[in-house]
Amino acid sequence: MTAKILLIARRLLRKQNGQIIPWVALMGTILLGIAAIVLDLGRAYIGYRELQSAADAAALAGAQNLKYSNAATITKNFSALAGSANAQAGFTSSTMLTGYPKFECLNTIKNMGVACIAPNNANAVQVIEQATIPTFFSQVFGIDQMTLSATSTAAVVGARATPMNIAIVIDTTSSMATVDSNCGNTRLNCALNGVQILLAGLSPCSPAAGTCTVTNGVASGALDQVSIFTFPNVTVGTAANDYNCGGNNPTIVPYMLPAFNATTYAPSGSGTGTYEVTGFLSDYRTSDTASSLNSSSDLSMTLGAGVKNGRNCSAMSDPGGDGTYYAGAIYAAQSALIAQYNAEGGANAVPVPQNIMIILSDGEANASASKMNSASNAAWNNNGTYPSAKDQCQQAVAAADYAKNQGTTVYSVAYGSESSGCTTDSTNMPPINQANITPCQVMSEIASGASYFYSDYNQSGSSSTCTSTGTSVTALNDIFTAVLNDLLLVRLIPNGTT
């Protein structure tokens, strides 16, 4: 009996039928696990790229809006957070880490000439976002979700290939001779110091040009070219007194009234009035990497940063005397911008240049008819349309609207703008239709939008309450730094940049 049992056992041990089944089950489980890992990890990678793209967008938006008090909110609005512009339906949840977005003042970026600006005292922003995504096959192994994380840093930088033509219109009427104790100088000198900050961050030459070879104030391969305009206008023959370091003031004449639709601006005759102090120049710095302004440039001379024959030159003067009327100055600057744009190839240029106008004034306009040169324009009238002694503030708004319609981006800097004034504006001048408009309203409406309107209402001797709804920067130096950063590009930088 025992022998039979042993025989049957040997036969069973020799049979191979059915042994593949447990192997198939084992390998199937292993392959299913691999599939779970591959498919869920692949989905996690796609989710990570979506989260990283959202973090990049948020950081770039934050860097572009550093000048605003709500920059943190703007940053989050472009993140992957629920309800934001880059929210992802596939995320179970998404969060911004505590303490982020983080606004930083990076020395590396400062060394590139980009200052840290108020109100965040920053030139860069960093974002860290986290999100969870559900799993599918991995749930077999008890893994229900995965947590993803993405970090992104963006900063304002000066690398830009698009040329800019910048016309800066500066009020030099008698009110600009008063002292602003908050700045520690006359209002005009405070304004000119701000313009110096702007020029210190612009690029005189295209990076592709290599070296800057300057001829008559214009560099070969010029990138950013700047022209200074002023009102009241001065004679063509004495305009150079604002930058020749001769110690003499230019001679003012009644306000000239250039045609609103001109495509060039080149007044001739030594006694003729002109609003343009310097042409479009790019020699304000000797190179893109120069740490200071070129002291021999006419622009530097005009701004009080020039040196001639070993002595420092005084800045352009504030002659005043003819009241304030600046619609003509805006039309003049726009005509000069169009001429410069066309000279560079206009819409056929590669890349197409950008026209920028920056207007600094308190916004009041109240020149008497006797100070407005009717002989310069046959269409002179007194019915409330340009040119006219009536509705002068509305004419300034209409002039800026014309410039904006021609493609020019207009920044306005209200310097002590009051909530009352514009005494000539008693009628609804078409198309503005704002009788009793105020200087503050004028400066606000001149700008291309709320984010292009700045106001310094804190200077001494003024009861100004003019504030900007689009920007929170108030001190002149900070304002021009903010304008500069607005003109520059933002880009992503390595997260460890210091």
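That was protein one. Protein two is written in the same sequence-then-structure order:
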Amino acid sequence: MLDGFSNASRIPELRRRLVFTAFMLAVYRVGVAVPTPGIDGQALASFFDAASGTLFGWVNLFSGGALERFSVLALGIMPYISVAIVLDLLKIASPYLDELYKEGEAGRRKITQYTRYGTVALALFQGTMIAFSLEKIQAPGGGSIVYNPGPGFIVMTVLTVTAGTMFLMWIGEQITERGIGNGISLIIMAGIVARLPSAIGTTAQFVREGEMSIFLLIFILAVAAGVIAGIVYIETAQRRIPIQYARRVVGRRVYGGQTSHLPLKINTSGVIPPIFASALLVFPATLATFVPFLKPYSSYLTPGGFYYDLVYVGLIVFFCYFYTSVTFNPVDVADNLKKYGGFIPGIRPGRFTADYIDRVLSRITLGGAVYVSAVCVLPTILIARFNVPFFFGGTALLIVVGVALDTVAQIETHLLTRNYEGFMRRGRVKTKRGA
């Protein structure tokens, strides 16, 4: 690993990309600390301390604490991610979008353009809702947390947070183009990791004050290390279906005849299922914040409770199958194999090949759904049973490890193309696609 980083510093282009990526992420973290005018910061922080299980606390996690401070980047990059996911899901209902996804680079540029327009519209809507909500939130000592409520505050807030989201979107695109790794994913990862030092400090304080034993701390660290190792193993694992190509004679040349494989990821849907499941489950607690008579019912879906975990796992399994069916079409794969003379040994081309791929994919998706559910539920069990003082959730852990694997794979690709030894001596990190 150390040799890999040493080799990376010897390649001018890769060094420039790494420095540019680090600089843009630093700009993002500086922007998180710039507050939006007109807000009582201390009162807002007190509100978020009590809203960790609501939609506000969920969005605050992925914005890297920007919503808690209500900075100019309060909305984070989530509007962009939400629009991109919605467009990805709509392609099964819209033949026009489906054709755009199949058009290659020209279609991707058009999809990117639609995503930007949708991001602006969604950011304006979310900014408006948040501005109205802030005016209704009561400070701990009474009164509003907004210094000067009214139309002026709403307009200024909406324009500020929308501009902040568009600035973050630009940073992400610049990192993808001129840096290393996927810029949008790295922004989300940076926001999550930025909260880790405070969590470590809180844990150390609990150990010093005797509220957590050193043996419990060692146990938690061992569990965390095991979970991370498991995520790395599963995310790089593949079910390889053998593919053989028939020989074709064109003139005096013979094409085909070689053997390949079709790689199927165990977790094809990535982190989308836990994100969707979390978003749906926090809505009852969010509504209860503004509608008092819903509070008794929202208590049944408190994080760490039996009903919450049961519904959470059910939603994750459902979205794992749903999103996999949207992003991977066995019929198209079978048609492409037949078009280029490929076939699975022992399976007839066409419909039989599609049925076989679908059957294999359904089985490994079940394993992937169980794996994602276990990773996401484990932190809530640790909090409920061992009173862990911080919450570094399974969804966040999946994102951090997945993005780290993807970034390391891209760095290794740059090293290998220039005849340098990569990070791994005995194996290679497989690039994560479509997660």
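Residues 329 and 358 are 8 Å apart (CA to CA). Keep this in mind for the problem set.
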